[in-house]
Design goal:
The chain is mainly alpha-helical and 145 residues long. The chain has one domain. The protein contains six helices and no strands. Helix 5 packs across helix 6. The N and C termini lie close together (5 Å).
Length: 145
Amino acid sequence: MSVITPFTPIASTIGGALIGLAAVLLMLFNGRIAGISGILARLFPQYAGSDVASAVAFVAGLTSAPVCYSMVSGSPVAQTVSDNAVLMAVAGLLVGFGTVYGSGCTSGHGVCGLARLSRRSLVATVVFMVAGFSTVFIVRHVIGG
């Protein structure tokens, strides 16, 4: 079954601008890069430093945003996720491995790293995008998802 995704240029532009603004504000006020994997890692004892409270606040904001959107808009957030538990577990492990191996995630490299003109982030972002495009192509056209 193929999932049709709507074209939403206005909502996507506003969302992108808000992500960029959040990244700028986090750097301005906390001196930190808005890399989700790094922020999430600060919630674990082996990586925790003095900035655990801001990491908790950031993650709470990420997880509560869909609830706030639903309350304001009056409609639920539509999100399609596979019901294949093995596939989801493998995907999660691959993302985790890639995040560690790539020294960051798409938000850290793609949003913050590119804004800082980091060559390493440019390479990482190109790899993320090629992997994403390839995965969608394979699932939709080769496997027939």
